[in-house]
TrEMBL record:
GO terms for biological process: carbohydrate metabolic process. This is Glycosyl hydrolase family 65. It comes from the Bacteria. The lineage of its organism: Bacteria, Pseudomonadati, Bacteroidota, Flavobacteriia, Flavobacteriales. It comes from Leeuwenhoekiella aestuarii.
Amino acid sequence: MKTKFWITSLFLALCITGCQKEQKTTETQSMAIDRKAVVTRHNVQISQVDTLASLTVGNGAFAFTTDITGLQSFPDYYQNGIPLGTLSEWGWNAKPNDADYRFEETLKDYDQNGRKVSYSTQIKTPQHAKEAVDFFRSNPHRVHLGNLGFELTKKDGSAVQPEDLTDIDQTLDLWTGILTSSFAVEGILVEVKTASDQNSDAIAVTVNSELINSGQLKIRLRFASPTAAWSDYGTQWENPEHYTSSIAAQDDTSALIERQLDSLNYKVALNWKGTAKVSEKEDHYFLVEPTGNQIALTCTFADSEPKGKNTTEAIFENSATAWKNYWMNGGMVDFSGSTDPRADELERRVVLSQYLTKAQTAGAMPPQETGLTYNSWYGKPHLEMHWWHGVHYALWGRPQYLENTLNWYETAFEKAKALAGRQGFKGARWQKMTDPYGDEGPSSVGAFLIWQQPHFITFAELLYRADASNTTLNKYKERVFATADFMASFPDYDDKNDRYVLGPPVIPAQERFEKTETYNPAYELAYWNWALKTASEWKKRLGEAVPEQWTEVLEKLSALPVQEDYYLATESATDSYTNPEFLTDHPSVFGTFGMLPETSLLDKGTMRNTFDKVWDVWTWEDTWGWDFPMTAMTAARLGMPEKAIDALFMDVQTNTYLKNGHNYQEERLTLYMPGNGGLLTAVALMCAGWDGAETKNPGFPKDGSWKVKWEGLEPFF
């Protein structure tokens, strides 16, 4: 009887559990976000010439930015807005070292606790050393691969200018990555469709217009010379005589153009459907002249012989499939139904930031700050910015894009170890300003930054959370441990106070402090604490002993610097909140509890006082795009969701998000990808929270003004 009763009870329990599971599944499905609706309601639509509204198609390792014509027809006109770039990860050129510059010429010794440590800095004298600095800063430099645009003429033969275009209608379909553009010249309509292949560095374009048949519309492929300057907008048309661009092969439906720079040789393959011919109009300037009223053209850039022939149909299909897959997987947020008037704009910024980061910063190496649109800092990546470029991918359920970039750290590993060894430290010291090969770029600021050092441990830990396996541990352990070895050997022991000190020389993330006088920046101290503990945990997961030096540094690391009831930016700056210069740039003290979780060094009450102090006295007009997401993250962790939203919408120029979703900074930085990545990181944390967070959607006000739906996000540390 008891057995029968037990079986009956078990049956009922299983039925109830099954019903509950089915009910839960049904509820989840009924609450599922209509992802296509969210994405497409923020499709970018342009109806007039706007040099800050350039639109990009790309695959993460290659990007092609267009003007209002759907191609790159007016590069000079757009160069002071969002420039019309064609950039890739492989397209790097280096000038010959004819003057026999040696990297050792860039080194200068600085005193660190009584010993000399060499740093690669921007030396002014002697002249040859100064030139060596300039050479190694600018070489290699990223190259604009080619300008593909229309050559448009009026009936009288004069060139069409942007102001001559009428009936403008341009839409970027975010769901498919396909750009459609239409405009009229003297009443004659031109219809254009553009997309980027997602598996190769290729563009597809179809054009329909009577202007083709009249000879008023041709397609131009023009090559600018790399400037090798801090910035490069792809508009330096004067090419040195030793640069060559030539038609290497041609038949009825294709042409192959070969380009030779200093160290870079690459090919551009043109393939078309219909009748057309390719001719060289002048040096580095080629014309595709179709007949009839339409042409379908692909343009493939490659650093080796292009394989096969791309077709426009295949590229358009590939783009639509890949982008749909991107949007259907990973995270999504939906703020529809919110009564806060800022909700729709936040959703727009989030959707467009997801598009831009995937199109421009999802390749195989850390991105530059201006993505694949145009060069800043010679096109070189900055490793301290990789946090803002990469962390959001893991939080948005797309860790593979972060993982893609970590292989580059293996490329740079030996040089990072050599840098640490040159300076007398253990392990690997990760470079700040670098290049595809892991070489260090001389910099009076960058050489002294240290907040990029723990980033690799952050990335590895995020990937371990995505795949908590021995495979992950073994893949990254060598670099994790070498990173920690440097971190344990870098601080100096202060025997008087029995503690370890960071710096001098050191420059914090807030780059406002004199390197030879600065020590114990708050954010870096907290980051050292968290990263060494995390590396120690990796040792334990693998059954290995934690090095004694790691433990000693952790136990005796200096406390966070406190004055009155708030944290100082650095222990050496007791005037952190009275010196006007120290109230500008990044308020990186917020990184102490925002970018980072609560550490054993932190007192949340003091951090709350610090937040209020910084909020009130900071010169917010002199900040950068990721400062606002960082502030929002700190506010959210401190239980101040209203401040988190206010931070994301602070009315400051560097917090501007353009029609195309780009985070605008200033005239020399009209786009800033760390701002977009930062926004995504902050919103993920505000929705999904962090380890130990107990409040649902902790970064959003609970007054009913925000209706927050999300799926596919991961909590942060």
